[in-house]
Amino acid sequence: MSSLPLLAHTREQDLLALRHGQPVSAGQFLADARRLAAALPAGRHVLNACTDRYRFAVGMAAALLADKLSLLPPTLTPEMVRQIQAFAPDVFCLADQAQSLALPQLAWADAMTGASPHAQAQGGAWEVPQIPASRVAAIMFTSGSTGVPVAHRKSWGSLVRGARAEAGRLGLHGGPPHSIVATVPPQHMYGFESTVLLPLLGGGVLGAGHPFYPADICAALAEAARPRMLVTTPVHLKALLASGLDIPPIDLLLSATAALPPQLALAAETRLQAPLLEIYGSTETGQIATRRLSQGQAWTLLPDVALSTSQGQTWAAGGHVEQATPLADELEVLPEGRFLLHGRTADLVNIAGKRSSLGYLNHQLAAIPGVLDGAFFMPDEQDGDSVVRLMAFVVAPGLAAPALLAALRERIDAIFIPRPLVLLEALPRNSTGKLPREALLALAREHLQKKARP
After folding, report:
1. 300: domain CATH number?
2. Distance between CA 182 and CA 228 in Å, rounded?
3. Maximum Cα–Cα distance for the chain, whole Å?
4. Domain match, 332 and 384 both
5. Which of 18, 201, 272, 321 could bridge across to 163 with cysteines, CB 3.0–4.6 Å?
6. What is the pLDDT of residues 302-329, one digit of tens each?
7. What is the SS3 assignment for 289?
C-alpha cells in the first residue's frame, strides 16, 4: 500500500504557520498534532469546528494520526447537525470556541492543557508521518435534494495530488514559500484545499487568522512576510478595493466560489499589481481548473484531469478526481484541456460563494409543521456585482412570516433565508403538480409590483 507524507516540509525548523504574529515550525505542528491525537475521544468521526486555521489544521492532522475521519459539513445549523449525527452516531465536535451544538464536544483548551504554545517538539529524530494514500481523510457534505446531506469521501491520496497540482499551477514550487492570508473558512472545500492543504503540502506558510473586513485583511497582510498570497472571494475582493485603505503589497491573488466579473478582475490586477487567478471546482471534485481572466475567458484543467460529455452532462475524471463525477455547470469543452463556463444548472443556488440547491431548500421549508406547500425562487441576476436574494412562496394557514423565518433559521444557512417570504393561499401548480419557473416569475413580479404601489 502506497503512503504519502503529512507535510511537504523537509526540516523540523521549517516555518509552517504564522499565528498571532508568532512563527510556528513544522516540528511544533507535528508535536501539537500528536498531543491532540492522544487526547481525542473514542469516536471515529470528528466534526472539526475550529475557527483558528492553525488549530483546524492540527485537528485535521491529529485525526489522520489517530485513524479518524474529519467531517466537514457546509453549515452547522441544528438540522444539519442532526443529519450529521444520523450519518455518524459516534461523531464528536472539536472546537476552539464555545459551540451550542447538540454533540459531544472536545474543547481545544482542554485537549491541549499544559502545552506551551511555541515549545519545541520533544525528543526523537525528525520524521514526517506517512499516511496511506487510500485512507479516507475527510468527508465533505453537500445539501442533497431530498434534505439528507450527501457525503463525498476524500482519500489522502486525492487530497495530496490536488494540493500538489494547485501548487504547481500557481508556480509555488521551487521559490520562497508564500505566506497565505485567507478570507475564507477552512471547513469548505475551497478553503480546505487552498488555505490548509496547500501550505501543508505545497510548502507555504499557513496564516491562522480569518480576516473578514478590509481593515483586518490589510492588517493580516502587513503581518505576513513576502511573498504574500491572498486567498479570497469576489465579494471580499470587491469590498477590499472599495475600502480606500492602503493595501500592503500582494504577490499573488486567488479567488473562487463564484466567477469574477471581468471589470473586478481588471481593477484588482491594476490596483494591486499582482496576478489574479481563479479556481474552478466543486465539493464533489475539488479544484479542477484555473484561469487568469485578464488573459482570456477559458479555464485550463489541472494536470491529468479531463472532461467528457455524456447524456447532455459534463463529467470530470483523472488526476486527483478518483472517479468520474458529473458537474453541475454548463460547460463548453475546448481542445488542449480548456473549457468555457456558460452558467449553472437550474437547481444549483450560489449566493456569495455558498452553495445549496432549490430541492434541498424546498425540502427544509416543507418539513416545517404547518407548511402545506412552498417553493423557493431565485430571481435572475441583474448584474455581475449584486448579491441576489432568494424569495420563497409559502402556503401555511395560521402561521405568520416571522415564525416561518425563525423555523427556517433552524434548518438552513442564514444566507439562504428568503427575502422576502410571501404567504399565499395556493401555489400555481400545473396539472402534473409542477411549478414552472414562469409561474414563479409571475408571482415574483406581482409581489414586486404590489410593494412598489404607494
Report:
1. 3.40.50.12780
2. 11
3. 77
4. no
5. 201
6. 999 999 998 888 999 999 999 999 998 8
7. strand
Strand 179-182 vs strand 228-232: parallel, antiparallel, or unpaired? parallel
Question: Measuring CA to CA, how many Å separate 283 from each of 28, 69, 427?
Answer: 31, 17, 33
Task: Report the 3 state secondary structure along 107-131.
Answer: EHHHHCCCCCCCCCCCCCCCCCCEE
Which 3-state string (H, E, C) describes 246-312?
CCCCCCEEEECCCCCCHHHHHHHHHHHCCCEEEEEEECCCEEEEEECHHHCCCEEECCCCEEEEECC
Residue 195 corresponds to which cell in the numbers above? Answer: 488555505
Instruction: Quick: pLDDT tens for 33-51.
Output: 999 999 999 999 999 999 9
What is the average pLDDT across 181-210?
A: 94
Q: Would strands 276-282 and 286-291 be described as parallel, antiparallel, or unpaired?
A: antiparallel
Query: 3-state class of 185 per DSSP?
Result: coil
Question: Does one domain contain both 96 and 117?
Answer: yes
Average pLDDT over residues 10-30: 94
Which grid coordinates are listed for 49? 469546528
Q: Of 27, 34, 24, which Cα lies nearest the Cα of 7?
A: 27
Domains in the chain, number? 2
Q: Taking 60 as the threshold, does the pLDDT of residue 117 lie above it?
A: no
Compute the C-alpha angle 130/166/277, nearest 5°. Answer: 155
> CA-to-CA distance for 175 and 198, rounded, in angstroms?
15
Radius of gyration (C-alpha) of the chain in whole angstroms: 23
Residue 414 DSSP one-character state: G
369 and 299 in a common domain: no
Q: Classify residue 405 by burial, with Cβ atoms within 10 Å: 0-12, 13-18, 19+.
A: middle
Question: In this structure, how many other beta carbons lie within 10 angstroms of the beta carbon of residue 301?
Answer: 23
pLDDT for residue 58 is more than 70: yes
8-state DSSP, 14 = S
Rounded Cα gap, residues 19 and 165, in angstroms: 26
Q: For the domain that residue 374 is a member of, what is the CATH number?
A: 3.30.300.30
Q: What is residue 173's DSSP assignment? A: S
Q: What is the mean pLDDT of residues 58-69?
A: 98
State how far the Cα of 237 lies from the Cα of 266, in Å rounded to an integer.
12
C-alpha of 225 from chain center: 25
- Does 105 lie in the same domain as 72? yes
Structural domain containing residue 405: 348-452
